[in-house]
Amino acid sequence: MKISATAQGLAGICAAALVLTGCTSSGEETADEGITFWVQEDLPDRVAATQEIVDAFTEETGTQVEVVPVAEDQFSQLITSAAAAGDLPDVIAGISLPQVRTLSANELVDTDAVGAVIETLDPSTFSENALELTSDGDTRLAVPSESWTQMLFYRTDLFEAAGLDAPDSYESILEAAETLDTDEVAGFTGATAPGDAFTEQTFEQIALGNDCQLVDDGGEVQLASDQCVAAFEFYGDLVTNYSVPGAQDVDTTRATYFAGDAAMFIWSSFALDELAGLREDAKPSCPECADDPAFLAQNTGVVTSIAGPDSDAPAQFGEITSWTITDGANTEASQSFVEYMMGDGYEPWIGIAPEGKVPVRTGTPDEPTRFSDVWATLPAGVDTRAPLSDFYAPEVLDAVAEGPENLARWGITQGQGDLLGALQGELPVSTAVSDVAQGGDPGAAAETAAEAVRAVQASLQ
Fold first, then answer.
1. How far, in Å, are 11, 177, 239, 333, 461 from residue 122 at the CA level?
2. Residue in 165, 167, 100, 86 with CA at minimum distance from that of residue 135
3. What confidence score (pLDDT) does residue 337 get?
4. φ/ψ (deg, to 5) at 270
5. pTM, entire model
6. Alpha carbon distance 406, 208 (integer Å)
7. Are 307 and 206 contacting, i.e. CB atoms less than 8 angstroms apart?
C-alpha cells in the first residue's frame, strides 16, 4: 500500500555519493541492449501483473526490460547504493512527489528525456495540477502517472439517522464526532502514532484545510502560525475526546472502522477495495458484515476536501506517483518504454490496483477521456476482483476520480519540495500530533515542530 513517502535521508547521503561517483548509470547502452526498470511494487501479484505488461512491450519492440521490484521502505537505501556505485536503473516507477524532488535535487533525473516523453504523449492529456506538481517551473522532473487520494470516510447510515450533514469542515466534523460518540462507537479515529509518516500525512490534510502551510512563498516556516495552531487544536480535540484510546496508526484506524467501532476515519483510497470485502487479510468485521461483506462499502460516504475556519477554500491531500528516467540512462529505450506504459500499457497498469491508481492521464489526443472513463470499470481487489462501481455510488467514485485536480501538498508549490523530501527522515509533525493527542499544548507543539523544520531546512543550505 502506497501511503508513505520514503525518500528518508537520501538528500544528504546521495549528495556525498554524487561527489564520489557522479551518481550516473553507464549510459552506454543502445536500445537493443535493453534497460533496467525499478518499480516500487513488491507484492507478488502486482509484480507478476507488471511483468506481463513489460513482456508485451518487449514483444512489440524487441527491447529487453529487467524488472526489479523494490520495497517502498527500502527505496532510499537502494537508490543511494546504486548511485554510489554508478549503477542507477534506467527507469523508475511509483516515485512519490517528495522522492521526485529529492532525485531532482541530487541531479539524478534526465529532465530532457522526461520532457520529451510528456511532449510526445501531449501535455493536454494530463491533469494540469499533476504536471505542475511534478515540474520545477518549465522543467519536467517526472511523468505523472496515477494518484491516490486521502479521504475522510464516514458512516452514511449513522449520519442519516442522526440528521447530520456530510463532515466536510472542522465544524461539521466536530459536531458529528460529538453526536455519534458513544460507549460502543467512537465518533472518529485518526492517526496519532509518533514517528509515523501516516500521522504526518493525516494531519497535513487537516492542516491544508485551514490554510496551514509548511512554508510561505518566501520559504519561511509557518507551522507556528495561527492557522497551524488552530489545526493542531482541532485535531487534538477530535482524537482526545472522540476517538479510541492509545496511539493509532495505519492498521489500527482501519481495523476500528472496519469493526464498526468508529463513525469516521481518515485513510487513503486504497481502502475502497478492502471496504468492499475484496481482500481476505483486511476484511470488514462489523456485526452487519457477517451476512453482507459489502455492508460498509454500501454505507460509507467520502469527503475528499476539508475546510477549516481560517481558509477561503477546502483542501485535499493525496499522492501522485510518477515515472522518471535517470541521468545517464539508455535514453531512447527508456523514453520508448515510458511512452508505452503511459499509452498501450496504461490501462493494464492502472488496472493492477485501480483503488489506488486513479489515472492522471485522462486519455489520448484522439480519445480525451479514454482512461478516466475506463477506470471505475476496472476490477479491483486482491483475493476477489470486482469493479468498484459494483459497490459504490457514482458520487463516491466521481469524488475519487476528481482528486488529482484538487490535490495540494505542503512545500511543493512554494518551491520547497526538497525540504518536504528531507523531512521524511525526521517527521517532526507526527511527533507534534502525538504530543497534542496526549494532552499537550497545541501552541507549544506547533512551535517545536517549526523549530525542527527550520533545523532541517538549514541543513539543506
1. 31, 46, 45, 19, 36
2. 100
3. 98
4. -65, -15
5. 0.85
6. 12
7. no
Sequence-distant (≥ 6) Cβ neighbours of residue 161 within 8 angstroms: none
List the domains of the chain with CATH numbers.
10-148+318-407 (3.40.190.10), 151-316+426-459 (3.40.190.10)
pLDDT at 42: 85
Query: Given this model, what pLDDT does residue 28 score?
Result: 45
Q: What is the pLDDT of residue 2?
A: 42
Antiparallel, parallel or unpaired: β 35-39 and 91-95: parallel
Task: Write the secondary structure of the chain as one string of H (helix), E (strand) and C (coil).
Answer: CCCCCCCCCHHHHHHHHHHHHCCCCCCCCCHHHCEEEEECCCCHHHHHHHHHHHHHHHHHHCCCEEEEECCHHHHHHHHHHHHHCCCCCCEEEEECHHHHHHHHHCCCECHHHHHHHHHHHCHHHECHHHHHHCEECCEECCEEEEEEEEEEEEEHHHHHHHCCCCCCEHHHHHHHHHHHCCCCCECCECCCCCCCHHHHHHHHHHHHCCCCCCECCCCCECCCCHHHHHHHHHHHHHHHHCCCCCCCCHHHHHHHHHCCCECEEEEECCHHHHHCCCCHHHCCCCHHHHCCCCHHHHCEEEECCEECCCCCCCEEEEEEEEEEEECCCCHHHHHHHHHHHCCCCHHHHHCCCHHHCEECECCCCCCCCHHHHHHCCCEECCCCCEEHHHCCCHHHHHHHHCHHHHEECCCCCCCCHHHHHHHHHCCHHHHHHHHHHCCCCHHHHHHHHHHHHHHHHHHCC
Decide: residue 50, CB within 10 A, 0-12 exposed, 13-18 middle, 19+ buried.
buried
Q: Which cell numbers in the block locate residue 182?
A: 458513544
pLDDT of residue 32: 57
Residues of the chain with pLDDT under 50: 1-31
